[in-house]
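Student: I would love a firmer grasp of how sequence relates to backbone shape in proteins. I am handing you a single protein, as its sequence and its fold in token form. I am told such tokens are a discrete way to write the fold. I hope you can help me see how the letters and the tokens relate. Take your time, and here it is.
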Amino acid sequence: MRILYFTRDYTPHDYRFLSALAGTPHRVYYLRLERSSRQVEDRSLPPEVEQVDWLGGQSPFKWKAVPALWLDLRKVLARLKPDIVHAGPVQSAAFLAALSGFQPLVSMSWGSDLLLEAQRTRWMNWVTRYTLHHTRVLVGDCQAVRQKAESLGFEGERVMLFPWGVDLQQFVPGAPGDLRSRLGWGEAFILLSLRSWEPVYGVDLVVRAFIRAARQIPDLRLLLLGGGSQAGMLRQLLAQHDLNDRVYFGRQTSQNELPHFCRAADVYLSASHSDGSSVSMMEALASGLPALVSDVPGNKEWITPEVQGWLFPDGDEDALVEGILQAYRQRGRLAEIGKAARRLAEQRADWTENFKVLLKAYDLARTGH
């Protein structure tokens, strides 16, 4: 089978999917819609995957370019003659694929495209509905995606759900290594944030809650990994409260480095306002980290309070502060909670098993069963 994998940019998630597809007997082509201003994945494409040169993939995506991109995409499809087009997010790559008229189209929701973007404007709502109308099978990672797709008129039986999952051999519980000692945080209570520094991910809320909790917990520390448009504001907030020496500002961390940070922390923290099955949370759970996360639907599908961690009401700074204090008070239970987190990851977040659902989605799109 000839598979055209069409995505907006090149991210760690794309690398995960393309690497898995490269291990199948299928011929895989990779089509990139844009090249954003920041590098989001530094690993090369798997050698078995053929990157397609076309009009897109050279600069940030702009709506005014859609007519030219649509014409060139039709030429690409005529030349490659794929058996399946796998495209996402819904309002960018999948929309262009839908415009092309190609079938069978497997659209992949990235979570926020349906959960947030679909209702942002009337135009985005129309684009979403158009794409879903021309989609044979929709792939998503949580029940919230299915429910949203159904509310937009898509048939629920044509939605295939699976968490994108993690490498359970790479993300494992273990000793923290020398990171704590290098930072001078040997006996500290360390929170770990892995979300991008953009408004939708609530990292500003994390920082504000950390500032307040740090007044009550002298040994509280924060590993703040990532990057984004809020960087200046976050640094300014911490500087105003003289807390820069209690926070480690890290860049977007490679998959090889990330397990070391997970094992060095005590609790994973996310205040995201929208999530499917969060891969960063699954990485933390697989590493044996209890999770303190917002109670958005995607997170509630994973975290049972007091079992794998804790939930707090989305956007509630007071509740997040109390959640941090509660986790600190229960630090004697963290090993027990961490073991439950690892068990959950083994049961539901194994990428090698979850990936098989995507191949079933391709079969459903091609054959109807």
Remarks:
- The domain at 2-165+351-367 is CATH 3.40.50.2000 (Rossmann fold).
- The longest strand covers residues 2-7.
